Amino acid sequence: MQMQTTSRANTNLVQSLGVDGRILTMLVVLTVVWGVFQLLTMGQPGQFLSPQNLWNLSVQTAVVGIMVGGMVLVIVTRQIDLSVGSILGFTGMMMALIQTVPPLGWGGHWILALLAGLALGALIGAFQGYWVAYWGVPAFVVTLAGLLIFRNATFIVASGRTIGPLDDNFKVLGGGLNGSIGEFWTWVVGLVVMAFILYQALSNRNRRIKNGLPVRPVWAEVMVNGVLLTLVLAFVLVMNAFPYPGTDIPRGMPVPVLITLGVLFILNWVALNTRFGRYVFAIGGNPEAALLAGINVKRMVVAVFALMGMLAALAGAVQAARLNFVTNSMGNLLELDVIAAAVIGGTALAGGSGTIVGAAMGALLMSSLRSGMVLMGLPTEWQNVVLGAVLLAAVIWNTVYLRNRR
Amino acid sequence: MTPLIEMHNISLRFGGNQALDDVSINLYPGEVVGLLGHNGAGKSTLIKVLSGAYQADSGQIRVDGREVQIRSPQDAQAQGIETIYQTLALADNLDAVANVFLGREKVRGAVLDEDIMELEARKTLDRLRVRIPSLRVPVAQMSGGQRQTVAIGRAIYFKARCLIMDEPTAALGPEETQKVHQLIKALKAEGVGIFLISHDLHDVFDLSDRISVLKNGRLVGTVYTQDVSHDDVLGMIIGGVMPKNVRPAEAPAPGT
Prior knowledge:
The complex is a heterodimer of chains A (406) and B (256). Chain A has 406 residues and is mainly α. Chain A has 16 helices and no strands. Chain A has two domains: 48-179 and 256-405, ABC transporter involved in vitamin B12 uptake, BtuC, CATH 1.10.3470; 180-253, no CATH class. In chain B, β4 and β5 form a beta hairpin.
């Protein structure tokens, strides 16, 4: 009885915050992991929480971060996409071929290469989605075929060669030496985001009060938005604390990180505020109900796969730009990282449940673990064992969470 | 008086199975017609033809005497025909507001207008007098009665003229069943026509004005509820025979 009262009080606390419990858990886990790694790496020159490591961590998270939001939508609609690593490799290779100078490449403009790559990714996604939606072929099989086809098509189109170097303007996407937006623009982005958070919070609250709808208590509002604003501020400060080598000129936010955050922001907004997002979740919750409500389920599934394909291509552009040379193994096995990040971030493989924010944090947790273990000098085999264990723990926790909620 | 809904000579075949064979039924405004029959007799199939989930191989559907083509749930909804499925057809992971408006969301530009939808949903569900403390929790967390209320709210918010209720009380306790009965009577008084599909003879005798019975995809017949006994109706369901000496019931019962 005593237990029950306490747990009810806890639930009410979380409920009045109005934040998904799984996201809170992720936040706690991330904080703990970062704290532990900092303690373990305290003595050495490259500490975990040093600006340099955090800056690198943000770049390392970018590629998976760009794709993970799309994967959430795919999984929420009860599908899966195993081909994203191969699509990333294939579109990245095509973009490299288009812009690299002849005779190795075709000598096209880098913007043309980028746009063609994105279009190609969307097309591949739509093609796979078509078989899933209109022919009822299981997505697992369709995208497994896609994995094989596009991984090896990457080899075929480049005749097995490594293609590069890439256009200097294109390389900005990868966050290399010229791939950051600098101190000033990092502040601009940070302040705009902070202003937006405040504006959203105030205008939503006012509108709900005007319409006579319940609102969160003021302390909860202040706490949630306070945490958000602090995170943004801390992010800006960290990004601006890492200088170019041999100087004290801050690099600011890397372009791939800006792209990732932009993609995640838009996807989160679409998922929560538009019909498209609503229908994705409705289809995942009950496909028959969605159909009876007049939702074009088939077209939605194709659209979700097309979106996923385009995001994989965007990630391919970033990855290619970062490496400067594209090999035919680029993005190999990356689909597993993306799916794992989505699942660690609370996306249920049964469909209907998941958040973009949670998945983004899942991606960050995965790359944090990897980065921390590298700093500690743990061998790769052990790194993967730990990541596997974390994935398992996350799925178990997620299952328990969803069962208790019912 | 023109019938609200006429289904004429509806036939539908699934592979080798004649699911509906030349079935004709009708429904007048402010009337409850009970649809009875065994599992597989064709009740649900017939109703899905009317609600746009299936399309008949042959036959006509008329609304207010005009022939209409119902090719999708939206076509049915455009005619004011709303369906509450036995499974309720709710997206369990979404909240009550999202379910009431599913497929017909209110938007400002491209953005869902959550506030307006929440207010309207609250108003509609309050009419149904089943207490739902928060409209913002997933309907999976609600009781059977609350979920039923959301499904009904979804139908009546959009001003249904014809309501199809498939086993509306099958999953409910006695108290909640009573509330659904009151609701059906209230909707009837507002002039809504209701097709009521139920296994529960008491429900049907309590609520309906006429009863249509199906067996093996064929219409056994339509009778006035006041003219027949439970045994008569059981005879129609099981034996497929019309009771002796009853009036044909093509028009609404006098006094409804």
